Amino acid sequence: MKKVLILGATSAMAEHAARYWAGDLCSFFLVGRNAAKLKSIAADLLVRGAESVDVHIADLAINSNHAEVLVAAAAAFKKVPDIALIAHGVLGDQDVEQSDPEQAEVNLRVNFLSPAHLAGRVAEQMAAAGQGTVAVISSVAGDRGRQSNYVYGSAKAGLNAYLSGLRNRMFKQNVRIVTIKPGFVDTPMTAHIKKGPLFASAQKAGRLIYKHTNRGTAVAYVPWFWCFIMLIIRHIPETVFKRLSL
């Protein structure tokens, strides 16, 4: 029976991924800021077959909270988790952030510094235990900076590079680091964006996160076709790219 720690458990993608793990009779420790939402998710997971579900209220954007969260999770599980999914983040507002350094700093802190700090700490715990998988939800936006979201994209690019190095370092410790790169996903975070054919449902994204985390896939594009879309975008010559409205 696997122990699953979900940091940012009220994320729509994380919630759907958790439902699949519940079907495997896993135990959960859910962390987020919204107590009512966490309670609702916990009840749903128990109905779906989860062995046990504990919840913990914390603002994960504040790095000083992380030690307490991980101690509480270890106490609830009575061991280091087998799987940790780091799912918190914000999309932000590029128009505001490009003219307000403080708002840009919030985006960088929530989308890069916080998940990187958590991933490093959890990976160290797992290395000491001799096994484990850390999956982190990043974004295809980190593959190349674009004028429409380069603050958010730069945070995800930094996170991708951090996870790549952590994966390289943890390989010999039997700890797998999974970088999840969703494209457009229909969630509350993207509610203001007009939906198109490239959008995936949160349920589909959750299923793919569950699958790739269990497999220990190094880098997973969600859905798969974003790998080819971003391959093209990365290889557009800069002389052409800077003239595009992306």
Give a verbal description of the structure.
The relative contact order is 0.13. The chain is an alpha/beta fold. It has one domain: Rossmann fold, CATH 3.40.50. It has helices at 12-23, 35-47, 66-77, 94-97, 101-129, 150-170, 202-215, 226-234, 238-241; strands at 3-7, 27-32, 52-57, 83-86, 132-137, 175-182, 185-186, 200-201, 219-222. The mean pLDDT is 96. The strands form two sheets. A seven-stranded parallel β-sheet has the order 3-2-1-4-5-6-9, with helices on both faces. It has a two-stranded parallel ribbon with strand order 7-8. Strand 1, helix 1 and strand 2 form a beta-alpha-beta unit.
Q: What overall form do the CA principal axes indicate?
A: globular
Pattern of helices and strands: EHEHEHEHHEHEEEHEHH
The CATH topology comes to Rossmann fold
For the record, the count of structural domains works out to 1
Essential attributes:
246 residues; alpha/beta; Rossmann fold; two-stranded parallel ribbon; 9 strands
Q: How are the elements arranged and paired?
A:
Blueprint: E1 3-7, H1 12-23, E2 27-32, H2 35-47, E3 52-57, H3 66-77, E4 83-86, H4 94-97, H5 101-129, E5 132-137, H6 150-170, E6 175-182, E7 185-186, E8 200-201, H7 202-215, E9 219-222, H8 226-234, H9 238-241
Parallel strand pairs: 1-2, 1-4, 2-3, 4-5, 5-6, 6-9, 7-8
